[in-house]
């Protein structure tokens, strides 16, 4: 079979470019098709995309860190656009007891009233400029602290959407 080469300069310039554009268009369509199929089956999506637990680390180490520097803040663990930042706290002398979690907004305000931690302390400043303690933050719904050799924050219920909206329910 005799292969015909493009004769004009215009053909020699455009054919490879059009071929490349066509290839990437087909590749993009194939990627979009795969994403469309996967998004129609959310039950197939697993922890590879976003874990439901966060292993913070060694119990003794983080109990000491919190005792020295105050509670730890983990921004938007509950996949809520920043509204459900989790604060991890530890009280007491026993590293295995006294772990608790809060959402990073005051219990008497909405989730839009984010707090900022006063560096190195157990106090926070809210959106109105008030200074509040850890105990005045909102208790989380669907967030559990699991303590073994390590501290783990379990977000399974909160991320599944089964937990009630803390801004509309009372704390337990």
Question: What is the gist of this entry?
Answer:
By secondary structure, this protein is α+β, with helices and mostly antiparallel strands.
> In which order are the strands of the major sheet placed?
2-3-4-8
CATH-defined fold name of the largest domain: Rieske Iron-sulfur Protein
CATH class category of the largest domain? Mainly Beta
Helix count from the secondary structure assignment: 3
The helix fraction, in percent, is 25-40%
Largest sheet: 4 strands, antiparallel
Secondary-structure element pattern, one letter each: HEHEEEEEEEEEH
Please indicate the percent range of residues in DSSP E strands (runs of 2 or more).
15-25%
- What structural class should be given to the helix and strand makeup? alpha+beta
Question: What overall form do the CA principal axes indicate?
Answer: elongated
Number of strands: 10
Could you say what the CATH architecture of the largest domain is? 3-layer Sandwich
Rg, rounded, reads 26 Å
- Estimate nothing, just give the exact number of structural domains: 2
- Any low-confidence stretches, pLDDT <50, length ≥5? 162-172
Mean pLDDT: 82
> What is the distance, rounded to the nearest whole angstrom, between the alpha carbons of the first and last residues?
81 Å
């Amino acid at each position: 079979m005799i292969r015909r080469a493009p004769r004009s300069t215009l053909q020699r310039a455009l054919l490879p470019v059009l071929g490349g554009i066509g290839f990437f268009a087909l590749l993009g369509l194939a990627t979009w098709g795969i994403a469309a199929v996967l998004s129609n089956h959310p039950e197939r999506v697993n922890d590879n995309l976003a874990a439901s637990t966060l292993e913070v680390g060694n119990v003794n180490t983080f109990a000491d860190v919190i005792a020295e520097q105050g509670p730890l803040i983990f921004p938007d663990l509950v996949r809520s656009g920043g509204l459900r930042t989790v604060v991890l706290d530890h009280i007491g002398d026993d590293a295995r007891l006294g772990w608790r979690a809060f959402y990073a907004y005051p219990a008497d305000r909405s989730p839009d009233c984010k707090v900022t931690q006063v560096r190195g302390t157990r106090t926070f400043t809210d959106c109105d400029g008030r200074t509040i303690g850890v105990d005045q933050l909102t208790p989380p719904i669907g967030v559990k602290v699991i303590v073994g050799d390590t501290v783990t924050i379990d977000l399974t219920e909160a991320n599944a959407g089964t937990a009630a909206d803390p801004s509309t329910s009372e704390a337990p």
